[in-house]
Each structure stands twice: as structure tokens, then as C-alpha cells.
Input
Amino acid sequence: MATLVFDRSLETPYIGANVVPGHMEACWVYGWDAQRRVGWYEYLAATDDTGTTRRESVYLFLPDGTVLTRRGIGTRSRVGIAAGDLVEMACDEPFARWHTELHGDLDVLPPDAWTSGVTSGTTRVDLDLALTSALTPPWSTEGPDGDPPPAFRYHQLHATAATLRLDGDAQALTGTSFRSHSVRRREVPDFTGHVIGNVRLPSGRAAGVLAYRAADGAVGRSRGFYYDGKALHDAEVQDFTFLTGARRDDRVHLTLGTDVGDVSLTAKTVAGVFTTVVPGERGAAHGGYDRLGVHDDDGRGLLFSFAFAEWELDGERAVGPCERSVALQAVR
Output
């Protein structure tokens, strides 16, 4: 594991003096309450290397299949706090405790509109989320084939407690959140798809993957990890089920090769949302767009699935993130 990931100074979201020219920062929280079957996704990505303006993506997954969403841009970041329009994120203790706040109106995507992406009204959402402790050590996703320092990207799993208010009706949430923090160039030539998945099981074991899809559909540049409850093991991604179409209940498998043996997981997606992205710096001014739903009217498009899956390993089961994408021309 790269020593860079243990530099505590990297944990503070930045603007101004400590930016790395040509490298943009992203902060990300992605978690699930198994009892209430509520999921949350908050993502802030700097639009340039100053860190002052950030794209914001929010998804809140409700038990009946409704998704509450907001995709926008904001300029409220300041020293030590990454912020978009509605979302703020900050580090309380490096590699241990973070917190986020979300306050505002989110668009309502009904369960039967998952392919069209047509929203219906808005609802007020207040989500105060605390990552209360680390459940795994931080894992560097870069490796020998990744972006070299000063770029970094790590993933980590955290115990989470939250208060969610929907139109004033409050409920407490608990669960596990995946968190990522990165500063990197964000250049992936010949991108045809990717996957980010991870899960923490009841025994304390955990596993995760970051992989890119090769042009022929095989696993390209990739890294994985396996946490046995005591030690973190880097892993070779031997196979993975990349996204092949817009299915809500999709079967997934992952095999990791580690120094303590092969680790094989299976999964089925249990909640999610699809978006269609056309390159062009994700902005209409550059000929690109990012739309809710499944749209195949542009040959350059990429289909994204922001989802959760119920993972299984040796009879143990738990729900964790399962984000995937694929170029539309590869969909079957």
C-alpha cells in the first residue's frame, strides 16, 4: 500500500494554497441502512484545480424504489470544507470521522420512471450524516498502474449515524458508508466502463474493487482489496461482472486473488438509479450532458448505474455499493 495514503494532511478538503496544478479533488460518501432500506449517495467534484467550484450529485434511495436526486454546481467551498450547492463535507479526524450536511429541495424520481428519468415534483430533504468511526483501514486504489504522486485516491468503510428529515418528518439512520477522497488528473483514455464495489460483512471482513472495462469487455486496469478483520490485503481482480444493460435486479460476481487465497463474492443489485452521460466535460457548452434515465440517442453515450447490491461471501451477506458503467455501444 502506498505510504501517501497515510499522510493525515491529505484528509482535509482544500481550496487555495495546497491544490495540485492539473489535479482535481473529489469527496464522496455512499452508504446504506439495512433495517430501513434507505441508501444515500453524496458526491462533490471540483471543476478545476482551485477547488472553489464543485459539481454536486445527490441520490437518496427510499424503500419503495423512489429516488430523490439533485445534480448541480455550487461555489460554497472554503478552507477545510468541500461544498456544492446543497451539500457540505468536512473531516473531523483524519481517516476516522467525517460529517456531511445536505439541506434543500430534491427532485423526485418515481419508481416507474427509472428508464425515462422524468422527475415529478420536489421534496424538502435535510440529512445530517456522521461517519463515526473507521471500519477498515484506508485502501489506496492507485497501485503501480495508477496516477503517480502527488495524485492520490483512497477508499475506506465507516460506521455511520444520521438524521434524515423528509418534509419535516425525522428518522434516525445507521449503517455502513463507503467514503472516497481523491486528488487526481481524471484522465482515463479509451474509457468503455468501470466498476466500484465494496461491502463490509457481519463478521467484520470486507472486500472492494475498482476496475476499468477493457475494449473487449475484459477486466482492464484494476485493483481490489480484502480485509480479513485484522489486516488489509491488496488483491488482483481476476474477474468481475461489468454492466451490460439497464436491469434493476442484476447478478454480479467478483473474484479477488490475494496473498491469503482467492476470495469470491456474488451479489444482486437491490436499489439504484441509471443516468446517461455523453462526454464533453459533462456540460452542454462542450457538447456533453448527464441525464437521468436510459437514453441511447447518441452514439457517444455511457450508461451509469449508481446502485447497491446484496453481496455474499461464504454464506455471509450484507448490502454495499455497486457502481458500474458501460459504453452504450457495448450494451446487449
In short: The radius of gyration is 18 Å.
